[in-house]
Amino acid sequence: MSQDTVVLEVTSALPLPGRYEVNPDRVVVEPSRRLLRGRFAVRGGHLVLGVEPELELTLATGSLRTNVAGLARALTGEGGLCAAENPVLTFRSTSMVVADDRSVDVAGRLEVGGSSREVRLSGQITYADELAAVLWLKGAVLPPRRPVRSGSRIARRLAGRRLKLEVAVEFVR
């Protein structure tokens, strides 16, 4: 090897620290309960990697699509999420751990219209370079501690249950 050749060793499998913004065209946020599946559109968000990792996603409440005809309207209208008064749902991490092998554990809160639910997710940073990172997480929206007493019957039943949640997001610099 010549004197002017420099060899760089990769010391971590993690992507570069810093802030990545969500690419809204490359996002899947899918809640489900048994055979019921839905999907939300994402308005924005970010991923911060480094000493204090952080995840935030803003979902368009009225964008919910489901595999059951008419259900999305019932869940996002009056008696449900009330998309007209609450146009966004916001997820914010309260704790986030990113390991050297790119595994990720996230706990946070999903907030809409003055109420919030606890969310726990785990998964992987499946791709990362200096320009982008792809995060794939699975977990659950936990049921509330107190029974849900308002809203339509179907909205109350779903709100009182644990919902599975799958998230796949591309973030870019």
Automatic annotation (TrEMBL):
Residues 36-126 form the Lipid/polyisoprenoid-binding YceI-like domain. Gene3D superfamilies: Lipid/polyisoprenoid-binding, YceI-like. InterPro entries: Lipid/polyisoprenoid-bd_YceI (IPR007372), TTHA0802/YceI-like_sf (IPR036761). It holds the Pfam family YceI. Belongs to the UPF0312 family. This is Lipid/polyisoprenoid-binding YceI-like domain-containing protein.
